[in-house]
């Protein structure tokens, strides 16, 4: 958790941050890990930044905590 009590996940992808390839790799990783279609994940903030916020449609925080425990 960060200093504001928000959960975060630290992920490293091999794709280069060129033409959105790293963002695509991140979305693919999260979709596979959470067993949801990529279409349910939306990059909300951080398109060109290291820190990103992803919205996952239809997934609550409890389900996310099960998939990525502390």
Question: Can you offer a commentary on this structure?
Answer:
It is built from 2 helices and 2 strands. The chain has a single domain (about 1-70), classed as 2-Layer Sandwich (Conserved Hypothetical Protein Mth637, Chain: A), CATH 3.30.1200.10. With about 70 residues, the chain is of the alpha+beta class. The protein starts with 20 loop residues before the first helix and ends with a helix. The protein has a two-stranded antiparallel ribbon.
Structural class: alpha+beta
Lateral arrangement of strands in the main beta sheet? 1-2
CATH superfamily: YggU-like
**What is the C-alpha radius of gyration, as a whole number of Å?**
12 Å
* Low-pLDDT windows of residues: none
Task: Identify the notable features of this structure and list them briefly.
Conserved Hypothetical Protein Mth637, Chain: A, 70 residues, 13% strand, globular
Question: What is the fold's blueprint, element by element?
Answer:
Layout: H1 21-34, E1 41-45, E2 53-56, H2 61-67
Antiparallel strand pairs: 1-2
Structure, briefly:
The protein has 70 residues and is α+β, with helices and mostly antiparallel strands. The protein has helices at 21-34, 61-67, and strands spanning 41-45, 53-56. Strands 1-2 form a two-stranded antiparallel ribbon.
């Amino acid at each position: 958790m960060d200093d504001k009590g928000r959960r975060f996940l630290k992920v490293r992808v091999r794709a280069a941050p060129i033409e959105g390839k790293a963002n695509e790799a991140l979305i693919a990783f999260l979709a596979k890990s959470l067993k949801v279609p990529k279409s349910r994940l939306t990059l909300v903030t951080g398109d060109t930044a290291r820190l990103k916020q992803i919205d996952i449609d239809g997934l609550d925080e409890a389900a996310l905590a099960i998939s990525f425990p502390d």
